[in-house]
Amino acid sequence: MYSKRKMIWYTFILAAGIVLIVLSCIGTLDSFWSGFGGGIAAVGLVRLINGVKYRRDPSLAKQMDISQKDERVSFIAIRARAWAFHISALGSAAAVLVLKLMGREELAMCVSLVLCGMLVVYSAVFAVLERKY
Questions:
Q1: Which of 9, 10, 52, 125 registers the highest number of CB atoms within 10 A of its CB?
Q2: How many Cα atoms sit within 13 Å of 99 on the Cβ side?
Q3: What is the pTM of this model?
Q4: How far apart are CA 17 and CA 8, in angstroms?
Q5: pLDDT tens sequence across 100-115
Q6: Nearest to residue 42, comparing CAs of 68, 6, 16?
Q7: How crowded is residue 125: how many other Cβ atoms within 10 Å of its Cβ?
């Protein structure tokens, strides 16, 4: 599960996050990039720690491999993604209405464009999967 290639990728993510934090602290980039860098550095670090644990403890590695291939976990993950998409789409639609009523035209337009993009991607993926299955 945690191949050498993945470990190198997670190390790169951690290093990129640290670089963004440093560049933001010295004033080259604005504060947005320090927060972004902190987030990706944290993800890289957690994934690296998990990879080290996976490689050092064979029983944990076996348990993780089994949980990754478990049909029940797979089913729950697919359902969670579906629910997350539906909730995001409905929340975006509600946000468009609220922003429009507040007179925030530009923001409402941005959120509606994101919502339209989500629905276009959904439709395209649905069409591809419908042909495949």
A1: 10
A2: 15
A3: 0.61
A4: 14
A5: 999 999 999 999 999 9
A6: 16
A7: 10
Q: What's the one-letter identity of residue 74? A: S
Identity of the amino acid at 61: A
Q: To the nearest whole number, what is the mean pLDDT of the chain?
A: 91
Question: Other CB atoms closer than 10 Å to residue 24's CB: what's the count?
Answer: 19
At position 114, the amino acid (one-letter code) is V
**Taking Cα atoms as reference points, which of 86, 84, 83, 114 lies closest to residue 99?**
114
Q: What is the DSSP string of 11-38?
A: HHHHHHHHHHHHHHHTTSS-HHHHHHHH
Tokens of 23: 């560049």
Read off the pLDDT of residues 68-93 as tens digits, 9 standing for 90 and up.
787 888 899 899 999 999 999 999 99
Biggest CA pair distance of the chain: 58
Q: Is 57 helix (H, G, I), strand (E, B) or coil?
A: coil
